[in-house]
Every structure is written in C-alpha cells, then in structure tokens.
Specification:
This protein is an alpha/beta fold. It is built from 21 helices and 32 strands. The structure holds 5'-O-[(S)-ethoxy(hydroxy)phosphoryl]adenosine (WTA). 5'-O-[(S)-ethoxy(hydroxy)phosphoryl]adenosine binds next to helix 12, strand 22, strand 26 and strand 27. This is Acetyl-coenzyme A synthetase.
C-alpha cells in the first residue's frame, strides 16, 4: 500500500509471531509484572510532576533540592527547577558513597588486544585528573569542549570530566572529516579540543591528529588542543602554544576535584545530528532531566542486576554511546565493557570472543551489525560459548524479522528476550521498548512506550489516526530526557519539532500502532536516511557533491540495502567533464573529505537532468523508486518533463 502523501510505503508484512519472556527471567526482573508497569505508566501519565519528582529525589544526588518539577511552556521545558546536581557525581561519587567504589565500572579492550580495568573509585580519580587538566587549560563552566577520540576509557573520562566542572562536551564521531569537525567547532564556538594521536581500525592506524590539525586551521575559537597518546608513533605534529599532551597535563594532576554543584538545566552536552536540511544541528541536553532519563530507562529496559556485565557496542560519538555507554549504566553502578575496534578484527568472531571472555550478560547492538554477522556466517558464532548472555538489545533502525530471528536463535540461544529500543538523539534515551521481564515481543516492533512517554500517531492535519494506520509519530507530553533546544537556533528548534503539530513533539518518523497497542516504526517522513544505523541528511550529501566543480546538480536518496539498511544513491548532472568511472571515484573521495566515510555514495548515476515538479522541487519519491530498481510509481502529474523519467530508467 503506497502512502502517496509522504512517498513512504506502509508495512505489508503482518508479523504474527509472539515471544513471551522466559519465566525465569520474569521472576527477578526490575519490572516483574504487567501490573507494576501499568501502575508506573499511569502514575507518570496522570501525575507527571508527582511521579518524576519522586524519581528524581530517589535516583539522583541533590546538592540543593529543586522547587518545581516541570515548567512547561511549549516548546520550552525546564525540569527540576532550581535544583543543583552533577552528572559526574551521580555516575561516580554517588556510587562510591553507596559502597560500590571497588566495583568494576569499565572493562576495556583495545583493538590490538590490550586491556584495562577501572573500578568506580579509579574512574573517579581519572575523571578528576582530567577535569583538573581541563581547568588548567582554561576551561570554565559553560565552555564547549570538542572531543574527537577513539573508544578508549579516556573518551568516557573526558565526557565525565566536562560534566564535573560544568563544561559542555560536543563529541564528534572519529570518522568525520576535518570539514565536519571545523563546522561543529565553529557552530558551538568550542574553546578546547580533546583528541588522540590516532586510533586503530581493522589493524590500521588512523591519524586522528592530522585530521584535527586540518580542522583547527579553520576553527578560530579553539585555543587549546589536548592530545592523548594512543598509538605512540613518532612524528605527531604539536603546535607550540596550542597543543599539549594528555600525559603532561592530565596524568600529572592530583585527581581529587570535587564535582561542581550545577543547575538542573545547566547544559551537559551538544551532539550534532542530521536533520532535514543541509546543516547538522547541535542537539542540546541539560543536566538533571537527561541524567535521570538515561539512568531509569537503562535500569528498566536492560533489567539491570548487580552481577551483570553489560556491553553496548555503540561508539560514544553517537547518542547511544552517550546514554548507554556512559551516563545511563554508570549512574546505575553497572559494570560496562567498552571495546575500541572493529567487529571483524582480527577475525569475524571478535564480538563473540569478547562476550565469552568477559562473560557478557547484556548485549546492546545495532541491526546493521547483526546483518553483517549473518553474512559472515554462523561458524564464527558457534566457536564460542555465549551462555553468559541473558538479554539482547537492538537500536538505530528497525530490525527486520529475519535478523531478529537470527539474533534470537544464534546469539540468544532462544532464551534471551530481545529489547528493540526506539528513540532518537533528541529524546535523550529510550522511549519505546519491550520491558524484558514482562513484554511478549513481536519481531520488528519496538512494542510499547516507557513510563512518561505518551505517543500519538497523527495525520497531516494533526488528527489522531485509527489503529493499524500509518501516520506521523508525535509525543504528546514533555519528558525529562527531551532535548532542550538546538544550539544557537531557537527558531529552528520550534519550527522543526513543535510547529507542524502544535504543542506536540514531532519525531520525524512514521509509525503505526496495532490492535495490541504495539508500535511499528515505518521510516522517516523527511529527507533523512539511515545508513548503518546512522542518520544522514540527503541534503548534506547533495551539498557535498555540488561543491565539486564538475557537478551542477545532485539529488540523493536512500535505497534498500541488505547490510546497511539504506544505501546512498546519488543522481548527478555534470558540466565540462566526461561521465566516467574516474569522475565517480573523484566524487566519492570528495564526499568523504567533506563529510566523512559514512557518507560515501554507494551508487552514482550521471544524468542529463533531474525530475522536478513544476515548482522546481526535485521529485525524490521517483528517484527512490528508480534507485531501488522499481518502476517509478505514484503520482507523476506534477512532473515538469516526463521525458526525464524515461531517460533515467533507460540508464539501467
Ligand atoms: C531510527 C539513535 C526503528 C528512527 C538512537 C529514529 C529506529 C532515528 C529505531 C534516530 C528502532 C532508531 N526501530 N527505527 N528501534 N531506533 N531508529 O538520532 O528513524 O541516531 O528517528 O538515534 O533512528 O536516530 P538517532
């Protein structure tokens, strides 16, 4: 069934399979009965402030109490008004005060096989040293620190050190290009940058500092650059007066800096993500509400138990790493595995080797990884004892039922619940997910909302749709973990999220709710595509292509891809050049340089012109069909020149 208004395709597959939680799991689950969930859900819905006020008192440390739970004047929310807390304190000191100082916080393994273990007490010392080092470099409360680092403990340490002194971290995934780093530094007016000499990826060294040097040449606000020695190769260029080594500035500190009491609404971090326009937006999260959301959702969804070894495979460069590698699990006193490298180095069984070695109980990964494992073959899994696992999670995109079944059977041995968690950078933490002790799961559905989440599916006039009908997914009530804004762009924040359906948060996803009240995410309503679980705006990729001198015009769409979920297909018109393989190569390189390897187009097609509406808009809907190898369907009545369509098809 085609939904002509948005060009999205409705689900045609109706999934009937139902997987109840294993009885043994339910017995000691954090949420152990449907009645308990219903009570929590009703309390959060009917007495929002009473519910969250109690939660915040119980689950965060307060230097000074808050006087109002939620001040909401759409689109602006303030939570736990006038309270003072600190996310680093909640992740470290609070646990140490509760007798968990000697518990392992981080079990870390580097790609080459080097390992480190940090207890909560040891982690606090490292965080304090880093905070002292940052202060010595002139970082004050409210300053923005850009972080471009490998998945080493120092990445988490830097984030927590910023939180400790009230600096705002802006973590940039270490696969982005120098251009992308500079854009983010400039947008946020970053004062200090933290990076490393390099990182290991599939046995090779990526020279991070070189990329940062290129970025810093275009980042006038950055005064200092702190460099971790991860690789230890000679010849790293250090700019006099700007660049300093971690081992000189951080490791020499005492490591006992008390956490700064910070306002509940003090900015905690900015994280850039793609929206429907070309410019990435800096999503802003603040201290108390975000911290509480990350912690409670972690405890509920991952059913956290004392003896768990929890592993979230996400990189801290993404929101999943922020909320479920750092803030959620550490606030909850969990023992977390952190791994630096690729899942297929030295071999395709690296993840399963790690699960066996560290006796991982809870594994949280992405469908794109699961699809890669399926492709690599079951023999890599079968070599290992995975019997320590008790719970599996998925995030980043919908998990197709086949991948779900494989995850369930091959990794979970048919007795681990799977939590398919739906959420976004903007939501701060998980919004919809099974609760593993009580929810019967359906492969491909993120099931039901967590307490405090009031989803609503509406049509284009903002009216709720009937069950089983697709529509735009909104959230009808503010929640503690919600974004507080787009850095430096109040207008865009209001327009993007709160205007189309007035007073409700527009997620940008299409969804449907079935007769059992289970939600099914159906993809984006805007021009955002999801490549290997990472959000990219088609317009960003188009802008990168058009900035090449040979390109006149470019249109980028997603097409289905077995491994990546969506692949990037680019239609390009050119001038003064031959449309040959050489140029395709050049364009790919150009996009990598502009954005980073994750935006590399999979297909490039040269065309004489692009299909447009009479008002001049590129008809991406048609291009999507063509890129997927389908007949272009749907309405072509507004197409300016029908012959364009014929010639695009002829190119196959
Ligand atoms: C998609 C990642 C289906 C969705 C945490 C959302 C999902 C976007 C799921 C956010 C899921 C994430 N099922 N789709 N379980 N999880 N998405 O900001 O389109 O990187 O809007 O946050 O990913 O991506 P983001």
């Amino acid at each position: 069934m085609a939904d002509s208004s948005s060009g999205q395709i409705d689900h045609v597959l109706i999934e009937e399979r139902l997987f109840p939680p294993p009885a043994k799991f339910t017995e000691k689950a954090v949420v152990a009965s449907k009645a308990q969930y219903e009570e929590l859900y009703a309390a959060a819905r009917d007495d929002r402030d009473g519910f969250w006020g109690k939660e915040a008192q119980e689950h965060l440390h307060w230097f000074e109490p808050f006087d109002t739970v939620c001040q909401w004047q759409s689109p602006n929310a303030k939570w736990f008004v006038n309270g003072k807390t600190n996310a680093s304190y909640n992740c470290l000191d609070r646990n140490i005060d509760n007798g968990l100082g000697d518990r392992v916080a981080i079990l870390w393994e580097g790609e080459p096989g080097d390992t480190r273990t940090l207890t909560y007490r040891e982690l606090r010392t490292e965080v304090c040293k880093c905070a002292e080092g940052l202060r010595a470099l002139g970082v004050n409360q409210g300053d923005v620190v850009s972080v471009y680092m490998p998945m080493t403990p120092e990445l988490a340490i830097t984030m927590l050190a910023c939180a400790r002194i009230g600096a705002v971290h802006s973590v940039i995934f270490a696969g982005f290009s120098a251009e992308s780093i500079a854009d983010r530094n400039n947008d946020a007016s970053a004062k200090v940058m933290v990076t490393a000499d390099g990182l290991y990826r599939r046995g090779k060294v990526l020279p991070l500092k070189e990329t940062v040097d290129e970025a810093l040449a275009k980042s006038p606000t950055v005064e200092k650059c702190l460099v971790l020695r991860r690789i230890g190769q000679d010849g790293v260029s250090m700019t006099e007066g700007r660049d300093v080594w971690w081992h000189d500035v951080v490791e020499t500190q005492i490591g006992d800096l008390p956490a700064e009491p910070l306002d509940s609404e003090a900015p905690l971090f900015i994280l850039y993500t793609s929206g429907s326009t070309g410019k990435p937006k800096g999503i802003l999260h603040t201290t108390a509400g975000y911290n509480l959301w990350a912690k409670r959702t972690f405890q509920w969804v991952f059913d956290h138990q004392e003896d768990d070894v929890y592993w979230c495979t996400a990189d801290c460069g993404w929101i999943t790493g922020h909320s479920y590698v750092v803030y959620g699990p550490l606030s909850a006193g969990a023992t977390c595995l952190m791994y630096e490298g690729a899942p297929n180095h030295p071999q395709e069984d690296r993840f399963w080797d790690l699960v066996e070695k560290y006796k991982v109980t809870t594994l949280y990964t992405a469908p794109t990884a699961i699809r890669a494992f399926i492709k690599w073959g079951d023999e890599h899994v079968e070599k290992h004892d995975l019997s320590s696992l008790r719970l599996l999670g998925s995030v980043g995109e919908g998990i197709n039922p086949e991948a779900w079944m494989w995850y369930h059977e091959k990794i979970g041995g048919k007795n681990c619940p799977i939590v398919d968690t739906w959420w976004q950078t903007e939501t701060g933490g998980i919004m919809m997910s099974p609760l593993p002790g009580i929810t019967s799961t359906k492969p491909g559905s993120c099931t039901t909302p967590l307490p405090g989440v009031i989803p609503e599916i509406v049509d284009e006039s903002g009216q709720p749709v009937e069950p089983n009908h697709g529509g735009m997914l909104c959230i009808a009530q503010p929640w503690p973990g919600m974004l507080r804004g787009i850095w430096g762009d109040e207008k865009r924040y209001a327009e993007q999220y709160w205007t189309m359906v007035p007073g409700k948060y527009l997620t940008g996803d299409n969804a449907r709710c079935d007769d059992d009240g289970y939600y099914w995410i159906m993809g984006r309503i805007d021009d955002v595509i999801n490549v290997s679980g990472h959000r990219l705006s088609t317009i960003e990729v188009e802008s990168a292509l058009v900035s090449h001198e040979a390109v006149c015009e470019a249109a980028v769409v997603g097409r289905p891809d077995d491994l990546k979920g969506q692949a990037i297909a680019a239609f390009v018109t050119i001038r003064d050049r031959e449309p040959d393989e050489e140029l395709k190569k050049e364009l790919r390189l150009h996009v990598r340089k502009q954005i980073g390897a994750l935006a590399n187009p999979d297909d490039i097609r040269f065309t004489a012109s692009l299909p447009k509406t009479r008002s001049g808009k590129i008809m991406r809907r048609l291009l999507r069909d063509i890129a997927a190898g389908h007949e272009a369907t749907g309405d072509t009545s507004t197409l300016e020149d029908l012959s364009v369509l014929a010639s695009l098809k002829d190119e196959d």
